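Appendix B. One record, verbatim.
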Amino acid sequence: MAHFKIENLSISFGGLRAVNNVSFNVEKNTIFSIIGPNGSGKTTIFNLISGIYSPDSGRVLLEDENLIGYLPDKIARRGVARTFQNIELFTNATVMDNLMLGRHIHMKTGIWGGATMWGRRSRTAREEIANREIVEGIVDFLELQSVRDQFVANLPYGKRKLVELGRALALEPTVLLLDEPSAGMNTEEKEDLNIWIKDIQEDYKVTILLIEHDMNMIMGISDRIFAMNQGEKIVEGTPEEVQSHPQVIEAYLGEEN
Protein backbone atom coordinates (compact mmCIF):
# COMPACT_ATOMS: atom_id res chain seq x y z
CA MET A 1 0.00 0.00 0.00
CA ALA A 2 1.33 3.41 -0.94
CA HIS A 3 1.92 5.79 1.94
CA PHE A 4 0.65 8.78 -0.02
CA LYS A 5 -1.54 8.89 -3.14
CA ILE A 6 -2.89 11.43 -5.58
CA GLU A 7 -5.91 10.11 -7.50
CA ASN A 8 -7.35 11.78 -10.63
CA LEU A 9 -6.64 15.30 -9.38
CA SER A 10 -7.97 18.16 -11.54
CA ILE A 11 -8.44 21.90 -11.11
CA SER A 12 -9.24 24.75 -13.52
CA PHE A 13 -8.79 28.50 -13.15
CA GLY A 14 -10.98 30.63 -15.41
CA GLY A 15 -11.35 27.90 -17.98
CA LEU A 16 -7.63 26.99 -17.94
CA ARG A 17 -6.99 23.41 -16.85
CA ALA A 18 -4.04 23.85 -14.47
CA VAL A 19 -3.95 20.19 -13.37
CA ASN A 20 -5.66 17.56 -15.49
CA ASN A 21 -6.45 14.11 -14.06
CA VAL A 22 -3.08 13.61 -12.34
CA SER A 23 -2.44 10.43 -10.33
CA PHE A 24 0.65 9.04 -8.61
CA ASN A 25 1.65 6.88 -5.62
CA VAL A 26 4.48 7.70 -3.23
CA GLU A 27 5.98 4.89 -1.17
CA LYS A 28 6.84 5.53 2.47
CA ASN A 29 10.23 7.11 3.24
CA THR A 30 11.11 7.82 -0.40
CA ILE A 31 11.99 11.01 -2.29
CA PHE A 32 9.45 11.62 -5.05
CA SER A 33 10.23 14.57 -7.32
CA ILE A 34 7.88 16.48 -9.62
CA ILE A 35 9.51 18.25 -12.57
CA GLY A 36 8.25 20.39 -15.41
CA PRO A 37 8.61 23.85 -16.93
CA ASN A 38 7.14 26.94 -15.28
CA GLY A 39 3.35 26.85 -15.40
CA SER A 40 3.16 23.08 -15.77
CA GLY A 41 1.11 22.67 -12.57
CA LYS A 42 3.72 21.53 -10.05
CA THR A 43 3.08 24.11 -7.33
CA THR A 44 -0.67 23.86 -7.97
CA ILE A 45 -0.43 20.19 -6.98
CA PHE A 46 1.31 21.20 -3.73
CA ASN A 47 -1.42 23.80 -3.11
CA LEU A 48 -4.05 21.10 -3.59
CA ILE A 49 -2.25 18.70 -1.24
CA SER A 50 -1.83 21.32 1.50
CA GLY A 51 -5.41 22.59 1.34
CA ILE A 52 -4.74 26.02 -0.15
CA TYR A 53 -6.81 25.07 -3.21
CA SER A 54 -9.77 22.71 -3.42
CA PRO A 55 -9.80 20.52 -6.55
CA ASP A 56 -12.62 20.23 -9.06
CA SER A 57 -12.23 16.46 -8.74
CA GLY A 58 -9.89 13.84 -7.34
CA ARG A 59 -8.50 12.73 -3.99
CA VAL A 60 -5.37 13.22 -1.88
CA LEU A 61 -4.86 10.16 0.31
CA LEU A 62 -2.52 9.86 3.30
CA GLU A 63 -2.65 6.28 4.60
CA ASP A 64 -6.05 5.97 2.85
CA GLU A 65 -7.47 9.08 4.57
CA ASN A 66 -8.77 11.61 2.04
CA LEU A 67 -7.39 15.08 2.90
CA ILE A 68 -9.60 16.96 0.40
CA GLY A 69 -11.88 19.40 2.21
CA TYR A 70 -9.57 19.78 5.22
CA LEU A 71 -8.22 23.23 6.09
CA PRO A 72 -4.41 23.68 5.88
CA ASP A 73 -4.03 23.56 9.67
CA LYS A 74 -5.82 20.20 9.89
CA ILE A 75 -3.70 18.83 7.05
CA ALA A 76 -0.58 19.91 8.97
CA ARG A 77 -1.94 18.10 12.04
CA ARG A 78 -2.30 14.99 9.90
CA GLY A 79 1.46 15.15 9.27
CA VAL A 80 1.90 17.11 6.02
CA ALA A 81 4.41 19.98 6.24
CA ARG A 82 5.58 22.34 3.52
CA THR A 83 8.15 24.90 2.45
CA PHE A 84 7.35 27.53 -0.20
CA GLN A 85 9.02 28.96 -3.32
CA ASN A 86 8.82 32.38 -1.71
CA ILE A 87 10.03 32.09 1.87
CA GLU A 88 7.21 32.53 4.37
CA LEU A 89 8.92 33.29 7.67
CA PHE A 90 8.39 35.92 10.36
CA THR A 91 11.34 38.14 9.48
CA ASN A 92 11.08 40.28 12.63
CA ALA A 93 11.33 37.22 14.87
CA THR A 94 14.43 35.21 15.73
CA VAL A 95 15.40 31.88 14.20
CA MET A 96 14.41 30.12 17.43
CA ASP A 97 11.03 31.85 17.54
CA ASN A 98 10.33 30.83 13.93
CA LEU A 99 11.27 27.22 14.67
CA MET A 100 9.13 27.19 17.82
CA LEU A 101 6.18 28.33 15.67
CA GLY A 102 6.57 25.04 13.84
CA ARG A 103 5.71 23.31 17.12
CA HIS A 104 2.32 25.04 17.45
CA ILE A 105 0.23 22.04 16.45
CA HIS A 106 1.87 19.95 19.20
CA MET A 107 1.27 22.51 21.96
CA LYS A 108 -1.82 22.25 24.14
CA THR A 109 -1.31 25.64 25.82
CA GLY A 110 -0.17 27.75 22.87
CA ILE A 111 3.33 28.97 22.17
CA TRP A 112 3.33 31.91 24.52
CA GLY A 113 0.16 30.94 26.40
CA GLY A 114 0.17 32.11 29.99
CA ALA A 115 -1.51 30.29 32.87
CA THR A 116 -3.24 31.48 36.01
CA MET A 117 -2.96 28.33 38.10
CA TRP A 118 0.34 26.91 39.33
CA GLY A 119 -0.49 23.41 38.10
CA ARG A 120 -1.24 24.63 34.61
CA ARG A 121 1.83 26.83 34.68
CA SER A 122 3.94 23.81 35.61
CA ARG A 123 2.48 21.82 32.70
CA THR A 124 3.11 24.76 30.39
CA ALA A 125 6.75 24.91 31.51
CA ARG A 126 7.25 21.19 30.96
CA GLU A 127 5.66 21.40 27.54
CA GLU A 128 7.83 24.40 26.64
CA ILE A 129 10.99 22.53 27.67
CA ALA A 130 10.02 19.42 25.71
CA ASN A 131 9.26 21.43 22.57
CA ARG A 132 12.47 23.45 22.92
CA GLU A 133 14.47 20.23 23.10
CA ILE A 134 13.01 19.12 19.77
CA VAL A 135 13.78 22.51 18.22
CA GLU A 136 17.32 22.45 19.64
CA GLY A 137 17.81 19.12 17.87
CA ILE A 138 16.76 20.71 14.58
CA VAL A 139 19.12 23.67 15.18
CA ASP A 140 21.98 21.19 15.64
CA PHE A 141 20.89 19.05 12.68
CA LEU A 142 20.79 22.03 10.25
CA GLU A 143 23.86 23.67 11.83
CA LEU A 144 21.99 26.86 12.72
CA GLN A 145 23.68 27.35 16.11
CA SER A 146 25.51 30.51 15.03
CA VAL A 147 22.29 32.27 13.96
CA ARG A 148 19.79 30.85 16.44
CA ASP A 149 19.18 34.18 18.22
CA GLN A 150 19.40 36.40 15.15
CA PHE A 151 16.38 37.99 13.49
CA VAL A 152 15.48 36.22 10.25
CA ALA A 153 15.50 39.61 8.45
CA ASN A 154 19.27 39.81 9.02
CA LEU A 155 20.08 36.39 7.53
CA PRO A 156 21.37 35.68 4.01
CA TYR A 157 18.88 34.03 1.67
CA GLY A 158 20.37 30.55 1.87
CA LYS A 159 20.15 30.54 5.67
CA ARG A 160 16.52 31.70 5.54
CA LYS A 161 15.72 28.73 3.32
CA LEU A 162 17.25 26.45 5.95
CA VAL A 163 15.21 28.08 8.71
CA GLU A 164 12.05 27.45 6.70
CA LEU A 165 13.10 23.82 6.24
CA GLY A 166 13.71 23.62 9.99
CA ARG A 167 10.29 25.05 10.77
CA ALA A 168 8.66 22.42 8.54
CA LEU A 169 10.66 19.70 10.33
CA ALA A 170 9.49 21.07 13.70
CA LEU A 171 5.97 19.97 12.74
CA GLU A 172 7.27 16.36 12.89
CA PRO A 173 5.78 15.55 9.48
CA THR A 174 5.35 12.14 7.94
CA VAL A 175 5.14 13.85 4.51
CA LEU A 176 7.29 16.88 3.65
CA LEU A 177 6.58 19.03 0.58
CA LEU A 178 9.67 20.95 -0.58
CA ASP A 179 8.91 23.61 -3.21
CA GLU A 180 12.12 24.77 -4.92
CA PRO A 181 14.25 24.40 -1.76
CA SER A 182 17.53 25.22 -3.54
CA ALA A 183 16.29 28.38 -5.32
CA GLY A 184 18.64 31.29 -4.62
CA MET A 185 21.31 29.08 -3.07
CA ASN A 186 24.94 29.01 -4.18
CA THR A 187 26.68 25.80 -5.23
CA GLU A 188 28.05 25.02 -1.77
CA GLU A 189 24.66 25.61 -0.12
CA LYS A 190 23.00 23.34 -2.70
CA GLU A 191 25.49 20.56 -1.98
CA ASP A 192 24.79 20.87 1.74
CA LEU A 193 21.03 20.87 1.07
CA ASN A 194 21.34 17.61 -0.90
CA ILE A 195 22.92 15.97 2.13
CA TRP A 196 20.30 17.38 4.51
CA ILE A 197 17.39 16.19 2.38
CA LYS A 198 18.84 12.67 2.27
CA ASP A 199 19.47 12.84 6.03
CA ILE A 200 15.87 13.96 6.64
CA GLN A 201 14.70 10.96 4.63
CA GLU A 202 16.95 8.57 6.54
CA ASP A 203 17.13 10.03 10.08
CA TYR A 204 13.64 11.50 10.42
CA LYS A 205 11.96 8.75 8.32
CA VAL A 206 10.03 11.32 6.28
CA THR A 207 8.39 10.83 2.89
CA ILE A 208 9.54 13.76 0.72
CA LEU A 209 7.79 15.31 -2.28
CA LEU A 210 10.18 17.64 -4.07
CA ILE A 211 9.70 20.34 -6.72
CA GLU A 212 13.04 21.54 -8.04
CA HIS A 213 14.50 23.06 -11.19
CA ASP A 214 18.07 21.93 -10.49
CA MET A 215 18.25 18.76 -12.58
CA ASN A 216 21.54 17.61 -11.09
CA MET A 217 19.93 17.68 -7.67
CA ILE A 218 16.76 15.94 -8.88
CA MET A 219 18.65 13.16 -10.64
CA GLY A 220 21.03 12.72 -7.71
CA ILE A 221 18.60 12.29 -4.81
CA SER A 222 15.22 11.17 -6.20
CA ASP A 223 13.90 7.64 -5.85
CA ARG A 224 11.19 8.33 -8.43
CA ILE A 225 10.39 11.29 -10.70
CA PHE A 226 7.07 12.48 -12.08
CA ALA A 227 7.47 14.68 -15.18
CA MET A 228 4.57 16.86 -16.28
CA ASN A 229 3.74 19.59 -18.76
CA GLN A 230 0.65 21.78 -19.14
CA GLY A 231 -1.05 20.14 -16.16
CA GLU A 232 -0.63 16.57 -17.39
CA LYS A 233 1.68 13.64 -16.78
CA ILE A 234 4.36 12.92 -19.36
CA VAL A 235 6.18 10.07 -17.64
CA GLU A 236 6.92 8.64 -14.20
CA GLY A 237 9.86 6.44 -13.33
CA THR A 238 13.37 6.17 -11.97
CA PRO A 239 15.79 9.05 -12.63
CA GLU A 240 17.38 7.00 -15.42
CA GLU A 241 14.04 6.30 -17.09
CA VAL A 242 12.83 9.89 -16.89
CA GLN A 243 16.16 11.39 -17.95
CA SER A 244 16.15 9.38 -21.17
CA HIS A 245 12.51 10.09 -22.10
CA PRO A 246 12.39 12.11 -25.36
CA GLN A 247 9.70 14.56 -24.21
CA VAL A 248 11.56 15.21 -20.97
CA ILE A 249 14.78 15.86 -22.83
CA GLU A 250 12.96 18.27 -25.11
CA ALA A 251 10.96 20.09 -22.46
CA TYR A 252 13.28 20.31 -19.47
CA LEU A 253 16.82 19.25 -20.18
CA GLY A 254 17.26 20.98 -23.53
CA GLU A 255 17.82 19.44 -26.95
CA GLU A 256 21.59 19.65 -26.51
CA ASN A 257 21.47 17.17 -23.61
